[in-house]
What we know:
The complex is a heterodimer.
Chain A: H1 3-12, E1 16-17, H2 30-54, H3 61-77, H4 79-85, H5 94-97, H6 108-137, H7 141-150, H8 159-192, H9 205-231, H10 238-269, H11 274-284, H12 286-310, H13 315-341, E2 353-354, H14 367-387
Antiparallel strand pairs in A: 1-2
Helix pairs in contact in A: 2-3, 2-4, 2-8, 2-9, 2-13, 2-14, 3-6, 3-9, 3-14, 6-7, 6-8, 8-9, 9-10, 9-13, 10-12, 11-12, 12-13
Chain B: H1 2-30, E1 41-46, H2 55-64, E2 75-83, E3 88-92, E4 109-118, H3 126-130, E5 136-138, E6 144-146, H4 156-160, E7 167-168, E8 175-176, H5 182-185, H6 192-196, E9 202-206, H7 213-220, E10 223-224, E11 236-239
Amino acid sequence: MNPLTEKLFELLKQVTGYIYPNEIEVHWGILVVVYPYLTGLVAGAFILASLVKVFNVKEVQPAYRLALLTALAFLLIAPLPLLLHLGHPERSFEIFISPNFTSAMAMFGFVYAWYLMVVLLLEIWFTYRKDLIIWAQGETGAMRFIHRALALFSTDISERAVEFDKKMVKGITIIGIPSAFLLHGYVGFIFGSIKANPWWSSVLMPIVFLFSAIVSGIALVIFLYMVITPLRGEKIEVRCLDKMASFLFYAVIVDFSLELLDFIHRLYESEESIRILSDLVMNKLFVSLGVIQVLLGMLLPLAVMVSIRLFKLQEELRKLLYFVSVILIQLGIFATRWNVVIGGQMFSKSFRGLTTFKMDLLGLEGFVMALILLSLPFITLAILIKLLPPWDKVVKSFSDGSAQ
Amino acid sequence: MERRRFLSKFISIAASGTVLSGFFKRTFARSPDYDPKGHYYGMGIQIDKCIGCGKCVEACKAENDVPKEPFFFRTWIERYVIKRDGEVTVQNIDPRIEQSKEVFSEGDILRSFFVPKLCNQCEKPPCVQVCPVGATFKTEDGVILVDDDRCIGCRYCIQACPYGARYLHPEKETADKCTFCYHRITKGMLPACVEVCPTQARIFGDVKSNASPLGRFKRMNKLHVLKPSLNTEPKVSYSGLDGEVR
């Protein structure tokens, strides 16, 4: 007996009620949880960066470039879990060369390519172009070559050229916001458009995905900012932190309202599937949804952020509470992805039974692989930060003149 | 005299008809120029005739190289036991699954029946809609097939199928499902499950043809399809379908 069927025989014993016989295997495992989690972070980090540019939020300027690089690092890794999950990864190029235009998933190639090439890389290039040239001038050896090459060997740092760069950044940001919405909204659509699955099939799904993405992206940038700044021996700018946290606060409120609306709507309409979905939530998802996603990942951070706003807390305490909140939020959003992806496959489409998901420790679809995939964007980010330092002191401000 | 002439004429016509039809059938089976435009396939299932013997499942597995383990099915049989207290027990009848051998006390049972399940070959197939690379497609004669050489194994179609009719083939790592035994029907043969069914619970044929067993089945029965609210328009229809069946 091969390991898969052995595992399935084991799972068969844990099935409750009746499920269609082909449903025992949970087809989309931990890697498909990681994928929307990563793209969500991309979209969220980018939207935070865009807020700085479009609405000229000066307080968040210190984290602007960090947010852009974070978006890029996570975007570069985002397709990996999908690729590894395929039965035939060597055929993945088929999505690009012979896409089926009625498939939400087929649009992946186009949305991804658009976002990477047209939005993110261009914005980063125009943001960094002048600095790259200046850095290259003061360097020797490999680094000099790398920076010159990254600037595509352009040398013009005249006022007119820099002015043009600024204009481009602004323009790309304006295209970028709807693109970021598209990137993650479409991931939500992949699930929301499956009418066979009542747990997924919801018109709110893309919007819920989007707002949870914004929440997770902002939380991640706050986390990175709070970790990296002291490591560099710098002082965390509390104004910047407060502003990002207030964005986070509003995003969490919208996200929470949307999810609450979805919940109430389902309960009130009480369709055929309501019984099995209640079973699912009360049994299989009680911890991951009730405790981690809602209680720890949403209500607790929300309460903390409300208290920060109500009682004028000391700076140090504020920082600590922010730090705890963003970690809890991150945990909560990961649980959100888990509950959507795994939860949606644990009940039978016959609405008569539940199956179980047993994650492997090792192997292509295992826990260790998920950890590797979740840490890869941070490694990528470290390399990007090395190549393109996003810090104020290194960057002789060009985008804002004085604020930096 | 009249009657004798009529009888002898009738017998000779019937005999030649049988010979001729056999001839046509054979030549059709061998014919390389099968024209898919001339067909549009569907299946009828008479719930009251199914005895749950599972021959169709075995035949299907043998004919189509479906893995033997009870997690991979192109077709399967569900047993419904509805008890007097309203409790419904559904089981997949498979000799490899212990639970399916459960015996119920007769006095408790309100009604009980078997439901053969298979791909519904939907007119509006959600699986085809979602396949990112077009590996799963609808043929001109109305059958939904998977191109093994193109399928990337993303399993989106498995998620999109409301009927649980698809699985990932563990060796091929591609999506797999009932094809109505396309390799057989295009040669004029019946799908394996239909051919072995001892009670003719399954009726295969052309949905547009009236003068056929399927046509007769459709005329003589009140029909229903599975999950009609999803608007997939199945081409597998059931007679005697109970409201408990999903």
